[in-house]
Specification:
By secondary structure, the chain is an alpha+beta fold.
Amino acid sequence: MTEFALRLATLDDAARLFEWRNDPIVRASSFQSNPVEWEAHRAWLERKLSSDDCRIWILESGDRAVGQIRYDRENGRAEISFVVAASFRGQGMGTRLLETSVSLACEALKVEKLVGIVKSSNLASTRAFERAGFQRAENVVRGDETCVMYERDCR
């Protein structure tokens, strides 16, 4: 049986996160779909890692990084963003990222609710949220995209 471990991201993960962020499939599912330059990514990661309002975890299987999940706290809730490495897509790793990090995020960020906003066209993330026990809350618009909001209480 494969064992998975979740660990907090560090600056040592900058190159891997940069590669994942600029993956064409990830960019297509992202609300900010333009490629990111290295210097901007590095500065962004430094800000995120030093913020009390953010947590980023890396899911690993042995010595292989499976994906990352980020929670950004605002107004008593945390919004979720996650990426699965290309070689692990289609294997339920988005669901695993969510399931293994939910209680950690609730505790670390002291929020009441977790929220995921997914483009309607992003069926993989939609399935991951549903399989991880998130409830479909409402349709929302981000930019010019119709999206689905998923929620899960921390209680």
